Amino acid sequence: MIDNQQNPFDHDVVVVGGGPAGSTAATLLAQYGHKVLLLESGTHPRFHIGESMLPFSEPIIQRLGIDWSAGNLSKSGAVFIDEATEQRMYFPLSIHRKTYQIERAPFDQMLFENAAKYGVETHQQEKVLDVSCQADGVNIVSDKSRYRSRYLIDATGRSALMGRKDKGIKRIENLGKFAVYTHFENIQAGEEADELFRSGNIYVPVVDIGWIWIIPLAGRRLSVGLVVQKERPKDCDAEELLRRYLTASPLLSCLLTGAEQVAPVRVEADFSYTNQSRYGVRYACCGDAAGFLDPVFSSGVFLAFTSAARIADRVHIGLSDGREADPDLHAEDDDKYLLGFNTMRLFVECFYQSNIVHNLFFEADRDPDLKAQIAQLLAGDLWVDDNKLQQSLLAGRRSAS
User: InterPro entries from the xrefs (predicted)?
Assistant: First the structure.
């Protein structure tokens, strides 16, 4: 029983959202010795898209003390493809660090359960209804209880609890509009399929309406999706649109011959946005709650890991120094977050607006330095001083904060 006269707080930190960002922040803060509550509105395991990981997530995976290789397919790199011209360009990514193609449901569950192993109090099927972050503490109301904590971390994904509460969500209009996707299994043997599963590469065919992802998973399964950037044809719905593009692709026609669709066709819209209210008095947002980008460069979980770790480290300092109520606690770290987010944002904008695949990627073999710079960004090595392509992206267009 808490002695409210001595300690008016139930927890040092309440983390809302039990996806990769929330589980990471909660675990790291518990490792520091703080009393942490992790609230998840759903139940693990649950389906989630976003299976392709970036190598520079590895240092945070190591801090979390988990083995992400178990049952997952090692990922070597990314292959960008234009089937109309038969052009391909391979970028090696796992040179200095390893990464994997993972199935999100068991992976997210592992992260959530790992938080509990480090002492985090974890609740599932508990939805936060309201929060109030004041100078003297944070009050949280859920559908099951009330809590008072010293700090709140918003890891609610695209629900963006604090961003929507503070009206801080700003859409990014010129990227992908929506994604439609499904899973297949029993991928038959063949030269193309065998090479895909041997390498673990993600394939990214570019098409007139956007792009397709082809992600190999353990057990000869594929995650396949279409991201639409242009207006959808009016004569079909999203599911029919996906089928049209799968049928029109010689590569996918080959890969999917004899395969079995094992998941419903799903659609995700309300795509890219920034959150102008990423931190404030006794709260901070991480992962998709801080901002979400078109997934063409697989940055989602990577930005979740890195933003969550950065916030956890800073909250620990704030709690230890008694400065957790400082509204500018995360100002310095937010500059680093924006460097990573805006690099990826501008990279994706160039993918759509500047035809970067044809004008840059397919020409990269002629310039080894350029190819290395592209691979560095695709691997998630974003906080460096010597990537000329990154510097060019950031100098060419200032992205909104």
Answer: FAD/NAD-bd_sf, Flavin-dep_Halogenase_NPB, Flavin_halogenase
Query: Integer distance in angstroms from the first to the last C-alpha of the chain?
Result: 43
Q: Half-sphere exposure (CA, 13 Å, Cβ side) for 30?
A: 24
Q: Would you say 323 and 329 are in contact if contact means Cβ atoms under 8 Å apart?
A: yes
Measure the CA–CA gap between 100 and 95, rounded to whole angstroms: 13
Is a pLDDT exceeding 60 seen at residue 92?
A: yes
pLDDT at 396: 80
Distances (CA, A) of 19 to 155, 332, 350, 352, 395: 7, 25, 29, 29, 33
Question: Using an 8 Å Cβ cutoff, are 19 and 55 in contact?
Answer: no
Taking residues 326-335, what's their average pLDDT? 97
| pLDDT tops 50 at residue 1 | no
| Amino acid code (one letter) for 165 | K
User: Are the C-beta atoms of residues 296 and 345 closer than 8 Å to each other?
Assistant: no
C-alpha closest to that of 296 among 177, 398, 197: 177
Q: Judging by beta carbons within 10 Å of its beta carbon (0-12, 13-18, 19+), is residue 49 exposed, middle or buried? A: middle
Give the Cα separation of 159 and 211 in Å (integer): 25
- Degrees (nearest 5) of the Cα angle 332, 334, 337? 125
User: DSSP string of 144-178?
Assistant: S-EEEEEEEEE--GGG-HHHHHTT-EEE-TTS--E
